[in-house]
Design a protein that fits this description.
Helices cover about 75% and strands about 0% of the residues. The protein has about 190 residues and is mainly α. The protein has 2 domains: about 1-95; about 100-190, no CATH class. The two termini are about 45 Å apart.
């Protein structure tokens, strides 16, 4: 188990180094920013630190007294080289964009349905209040405070207390539910 952990950590270290070097390469970007250079330096430092920690465990005895084989470094370099340079050129990697679009569409659809569901609950809440008014002749405002059995607020500030009491305890739950549903629905529609 220790061998697998060290291989994974060394692979992460070599990935940091490879990525740090790629930050300095002349890519197809229009300009190289200082952020790229700073990010490259940080990635190189992270890779060197990880190599010094986990690479030394293959050269020196581990704290548990085990002698790890020296081929672990070679396996880590080969694994990282394959995953960093060759795997992105495979068909599996190139098809991931289609899967990503499908997942994004599904997530946005679910989020949109949740938003519309909250709006429907809010609208049905006001329709229920109207039904009770037609039946009993008294408008009964069922608020969020009624649902959650909340007491009147006492913050020490009279104005803040009145605002909180009105928006949470006195106003119908229709308004906060519809606003929340609209925010969620509109968030799902952004591209």
């Amino acid at each position: 188990m220790l061998t697998i952990t060290i291989i994974l950590m060394q692979s992460l270290a070599f990935w940091c180094i490879f990525y740090g070097i790629d930050c300095f390469r002349d890519t197809s970007k229009k300009y190289k920013t200082a952020a790229n250079i700073l990010y490259g330096i940080c990635m190189l430092l992270a890779g060197v630190i990880l190599i010094s920690i986990f690479g030394s465990l293959t050269i020196i005895d581990t704290p548990t007294g085990e002698n790890l084989p020296k081929w672990i470094i070679v396996v880590s370099i080969i694994l990282t080289s394959y995953l960093y340079y060759f795997f992105p050129k495979t068909k599996i990697w190139k098809k991931r964009q289609k899967a990503k679009q499908t997942l994004e569409f599904a997530f946005n659809s679910i989020l949109g349905m949740i938003g519309l569901g909250i709006i429907v609950v809010g609208v049905s809440h006001i329709l229920y209040s109207a039904f009770v008014w037609l039946k009993e002749g008294v408008w009964k405002s069922i608020s969020l405070g009624y649902w959650f059995n909340l007491d009147r607020f006492d913050t020490g500030f009279k104005g803040v207390d009145k605002i909180l009491d009105y928006t949470i305890l006195d106003i119908s739950a229709f308004f906060p539910l519809v606003v929340l549903g609209l925010v969620i629905f509109l968030a799902s529609q952004e591209d």
